[in-house]
Specification:
The structure holds 2 protein chains of 2 kinds.
Chain A lengths: L5 H26 L4 H10 E6 L6 E2 L5 E13 L9 H8 L3 H15 L5 E4 L4 H10 L6 E10 L6 H4 L2 E3 L2 H6 L10 E3 L2 H5 L1 H5 L3 E7 L5 E4 L15 E3 L3 H10 L5 E7 L4 E8 L12 H10 L8 H4 L9 H10 L14 E2 L7 E2 L11 H7 L2 H12 L7 H14 L21 H8 L24 H12 L3 E2 L5 E4 L4 H11 L2 E2 L5 H16 L14 E7 L7 E8 L6 E7 L9 H14 L4 H12 L5 H32 L9 H10 L6 H27 L1
Parallel strand pairs in A: 2-10
Antiparallel strand pairs in A: 1-8, 2-3, 3-4, 3-5, 6-7, 8-9, 10-16, 11-12, 11-20, 13-14, 15-17, 18-19, 19-20
Chain B lengths: L1 H7 L4 H22 L6 H7 L3 H21 L2 H25 L1 E3 L2 E6 L5 E2 L1 H17 L9 H20 L3 H6 L3 H7 L4 H19 L2 H18 L1 H6 L2 H28 L2 H10 L10 H9 L11 H11 L12 H4 L11 H33 L4 H25 L17 H19 L7
Antiparallel strand pairs in B: 1-2, 2-3
Helix pairs in contact in B: 2-4, 2-18, 4-20, 5-6, 5-7, 6-7, 6-19, 6-20, 9-19, 10-13, 11-13, 16-18, 18-19, 19-20
Classes of the chains: A alpha+beta, B mainly alpha.
Chain lengths: 702, 448
Amino acid sequence: MSVFNQSRGRVIQIIIGAVFIVMTAQLINLQIFSSQYKLAAENNAIYRKIIYPDRGIIFDRKKRALLENTISFDLVVTPAESKGTDTATLCAILGIDTSEYKKRMLDAIFKNTRVRPSIFEPLLTPDLYAKLTENMYKFPGFVLSERSVRTYPFNTAAQLLGYIAEVDTAYLRKNKHLGYEMGDYAGMSGLEKTYESVLMGQRGIKRFIRDNKSRIQGPYENGIFDTIPVAGRNLYTSIDVEVQQLAEQLLQNKIGSAVAINPQTGGIISMVSSPTYNPNVLTGNARRKNWGRMVMDTAKPMYNRAIKGQYPPGSTFKPLGALVALDQGLITSDYGIGCSGGYGACGGVYVRCEHGNAGHAANLRLALANSCNSYFSDVFRKALDNKKWGNPNQGYLKWKEYMNAFGLGRRLEVDLPSEDKANIPDTSVYNRFFGGARRWNSCSVLTLGIGQDKMTATPLQMANLMCIIANKGYYYPPHFVDSIESESTADTVLMNKYRTKHTVTNISDRDYQAVNDGMHDVTVYGTASHIKIPGVEYCAKTGTAQNPHGKNHSLFVAFAPKDNPRIAVAVVVENGGYGSVAAGPIAGLIIEKFLNDTLSTAGKATAERITKMDLVPQAIKNWYTRKDAERAARLAKLALEEAAEKEEAEPNREAPKNNTEAILEQGSKPVGNKKDSTEKYKIKAALLISESKKKKMEGRRQ
Amino acid sequence: MTKNKSISQGIDYPVIWLYASLVAIGILCIFMVEYREGVNVFSSFIGGKTNYSKQLFFAGFCVLVATFILLTDSKLFTAFANLMYVFGLLLMLATFVIGKNINGSKSWIPLAGGFNLQPAELCKIFTALALAKFLSRQEIDFSKLKYQLIGGAITLAPAVLSILQHELGLALVYTSFLIAMYREGLPAQILIIGSSFGALVIASLIIEPNTLLIALSVIAVFMIYIARRQAKRNKGVITIIFIAWLISAGTQRFVIPYIFNNVLECYQSTRIYSMVGKDYNCSENVKSMKKQQTGNEKAPRKPDDYNVRQSKIAIGSGGFTGKGFLKGTQTRGKYVPEQHTDFIFTSLGEAFGFLGCFFFLILYIALLFRIVRIAERQRSTFSRVYAYSVVSIFFFHIAVNVSMTIGLFPIVGIPLPLISYGGSSLLTFTILIFILLRLDADRQMVLR
């Protein structure tokens, strides 16, 4: 029997073999020739965790840390594991209600799914942290995860240092190649932004194996593919923290700016824009609130006036006016004019001069010391009407070229973001203004010669101009960072910009000496003669810029010591009046502090006087009052609403006569364990009353 | 000693070694799937809570059963074959009454100690024995249609019951008996027609209906051209070709859409479509629409080939040499569903790569060819038919299971013999093999 169909056994074997060959072929295809499965498997199972390095520290010129890193804690929740959490206690600690808790939980699930951790409350205060650590055992699924944040031990230089913040989608799109991810922090302004690549360091990557629900199972291949984070490198700046603090103090209650530069290196010693803010308010958990408040603030505390504020330089421009004429050979330092209280050569335009006595403009030195308007108007016209250039239009272009060479009307490329170039108008502007190129001449724009008209400059540009005069013809671009820790070639390329000497003019030292002497005379018997710096001979120029919107701006530029200068300063105080009244003393104190390391007794007294001087315009003060009133009204309204809610909850209570009384009644009535809330009511009620009083008074006034 | 000798007398040792190594590999694979870093392997092993310790326990039990089988007399199996077949069918019927629902199919009978028995698994043995018994009867001439139909009925009865239990995979296994029947004289045409039908189904899934119709017509014309000489002598040839063309065109146009839309469940159609890389639109499926109307089932999900994709990723990422024992990231991450049972092959593929898979398949081939050789040396038809049934069942399981993990076959829930986790399945395959060994030991006898 078994003989039958025996060949079919062979056929069956062949069928089996064929099927196995097909399977083997598919295995070869999958395992040897298809690389996409390896990639897919890695994407599936390998979780790359970024290890953040410590950001670099920024030091001042004496190696004091302007900012440091510290650990802050986030409360992090994994929703899937949070069953059994004592919600009531947690809400009580965080000061939120259960609906807020639920909302945050849903947000977390929506953002990061149920099984992955997401931040529940960021940047806990130390107090909150202590309370939470005590009770953590009650909150399964919650953990406190640490994060490195900035802290500013000197509470100073907020606008210079800038702040770091979580990157947003726009930032990610812009910096795609740098490998930022959602949740990363990056410098958003100031030095933090400019030197982001240095400060950031190199992030490390740890690879973990994760399972199908994205839960971490352990390190991948025992971490042989992991990279170690490299800490960010430190920055050594030329800032002097004490000078900076003093300058900030002096500019309190004023709107303005001060810049101090070391002319020998271009290193910025101090840069203040007032009003400023304490950098520490942008680190804690109130960051968002504070930020919002400051952005809305009409006085713009986050706006760096030192590099963005545009002011007419006024008389502080005069030394430059002289230098332009000197360089073109139009005048010599001996050139003088007779001024009898004004410049009338232009007929229609008459420029008044503060002095009328004979010989006050007999030479350049005297003209500078006395700040003679006539002299510099004359010099300016000489520059524009120079025969060499053909016509005033061309003369103006040449003059503008000089301005740009001296750093006005262009960016100085300081190492802060969003520097402004201020304004030295082009001829086209005047052509439009006067209705044609032939319709204007040196007389039409005469006041440019005394730093008015359409020209503006930032305080930084003014300070840089002082550097050029102090150095007798050259400058280094102003900058903060002197050196970078373990500087790489790329850094050197970056820094070389600031280490290149820029020579501006071919004016002889003798002519420069005349300008310097004139500026020295300003401090001896001229407009700044009452500002003395113990043991220091210095050169300065006051300026009083006409301000169409209100009181004149007070300007002051200076450099010191007279010989071999080590500091050049420019100070602007908005609405400060004469240059020697507000800006002058501030500049003097800055120089004194820097050169003498300490203030004399007289200096301290002046500093106190200046600090107390309140020059904030009334309009801004009114704005603050209005804001406060609005906030009070809002709080009162809230209090009323809450009171109404309480009433609804207690229908048995007698209907009170009016709401205010109800609040007061509730406030005065102790409700046992609700002590806190009653206090709150008391405060709100008080606010409400004061608010109504204010309104009444306002009504009366009207 | 003498007793031992009598047990081991005539036993085919290669099969025993292959069997033992496959079971060992299986436990190892389950261990790979269950293993977690940092967990004390020894204590969890002793605890008996893990699947690999359970599987080891099953293996121990199987050794007992195997020894018992080897101790019995071969005549027992011929004598009780029909009785056991009836018993198996009764057990399967019993599941409709006392069945326990596991993973959506009510095909399990709960036993003491938390273990469950799937009668459909055991029924494979009984069917194999019954078919062998039937074909070994002296009056049977299997070339006659009547006996072919009876043989078919014997194998189809448990298959039908399995379908009623929603165990399509188990039901499909019974079609593998065709191989055994083919060996005993079933006309080859049935196999050829069957495989042509399969080819037609796949073709009509992949190719546009109209394009396929044109292709079929071209093939028919080509056939007529080749057979033109014979056609002169016998006009019937052209008629046959024409009828075949008509049938295949009708099939691809009407029958196959009907099967997918009206016979198969939505998920089954989806799986078959996903195998050729296409999406099946469940709203065309009558059954799913009915269920939707009655509101028993959720709205049809977007077809998803997650299982196959993950399975292919796991195997494909193994590469040539694999990632190494316990180093499979996909296995550890539990990316492949049902990895310890139906998709156990993926853990092997990931850990040991192509080399491992190839060696593993060679083991299987060796086992199958060895059994074929055993079958051919039997004197009695009973033993031979039984041996071929064993080959068929093993072959079907292996081919379908491995093919589905590497994306060559739609997903059907059948285990990989001797490797997949599961007591019923391991016991079934053990019994299948050891009855064969017992019969082979007595191959000089003529059993009826």
